[in-house]
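Following up on my earlier thread - several people asked me to post the actual chain instead of describing it. Fair enough. Here it is, all 473 residues.
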Amino acid sequence: MLIHGERKEGTEKIEVFSPYSGECVGKVAKCSVDLIPEIMKAAEMGAAQMRKMSVNDRAKILYGVSHQLLEQKERFAKVLVKEVGKTIRDACKEVERAANTLKLSAEAAGAICGEVIPVEQDAGGVRTGFYQRVPVGVVLAVTPFNFPLNLACHKMGPAFAAGNSVIVKPASKTPLTAMMLGELFLSCGLPKDAVTVVCGSGRELGNALVADSRVRKISFTGSYQAGDEICKNAGVKKITMELGSTSAVVVSKDTDIKIAAEKLCRAGFANAGQVCISVQRVYVHNSVKDELLSDMKRCALSVKCGDPSEKDTDLGPMISRDALIRAQERVQRSIAMGARLVTGNITEGNIFYPTILKDAPENAPVIQEEMFAPVITVNGYETLDEAIQKVNHTPYGLQAAILTEKIEEAMRFADEAEFGGIIINDTCNYRVDQMPYGGLKNSGIGKEGPGFAIKEMTEMKMIVMNGSVQGAL
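Reply from S.P.:
Thanks for posting it. Predicted structure:
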């Protein structure tokens, strides 16, 4: 753990295992709830220091870490391969994105501003009203296993840009990059108490941090179930929840099917399907359904699975055996309910080979539950009304997409699909780090993206000034 700018040992260790080889690739100290008073003392001291730091100095630190991430890309990427199991190509992309996220945060720091508000004029004097944005104080960042570097930057970057301190609690399966990132911030001039990195059980350490009144903002990325528990325990504080999804793409009959098949497979199987906005559901017009399935099967069979450290590997392992088993059980239950297997449903170690199903009932697990695995289900539709109804018929609403040549179809879908993000003529997997990112329904609360996250990590302070001293008296 990283407290007061130093690595500290604990009485217990958390071992980190490679999802591909099963070997232990690192150890971190397990943080006890007994240390929360020390953690919070450090975080409050850090918040006071960050609040006094100039915007230029905050931005300078963020630019510095961004530059260092690119300088150390290979080092960070190799650790991502080891602890996450993502391919070396995807790991390098994540480091590049993380550097860009911090650069965007630095740029957004200079744009934090208030606004003049018209206030009442009366016989006693003329009043001027304006608000400022001020830091919330202590931010708790709870990060997931699938993008442990970039999603940490999406929380830490805006928080530091806004003048807060941050307590980072990374996923226990992937804490190594978070520790490296915390130390990199310190080496680039961040005050030693402004960042704390602690690892431990969500039920024990996580719940205790969440409930602490000194934490003024929680930014969480993870499952709906965990997010629901956090919201119940948090009390009165600001919360951003980036939760689960069953993201869908509608494919119209006038789409280039070969291009669509490649896009869908690439977006459904990336990072072994362990992406919140992975393509999980596809609704294709019945007239081109067989053609799309044939091309998607060919794409799926061409995916090279294996050692994620090899440059030509397309798909590595899932994060754990338990995660693989849960995904396979959902596939099996869906097949028992009537879904038909097109290809895949084969496992080797922790690798789940690219899997495509078709004709699944709309109440099947592969439709209604977040798969978080390289599994795509393809169902047909006849009318756009039917497609939109099916796309909306899950508890989630993160992102959805439509592939069409008809502007009227695209705009109608954008208007009626109940999702936080609508992508036209690309897949639901599309995200750039500056866009507002967040879902509707059970997919979450609030938005990420540095410029938007900063608003979530600041408070408005209203100031009203009476221009007349006599009027004030």
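The first helix runs from residue 36 to 52. That should answer part of your original question.
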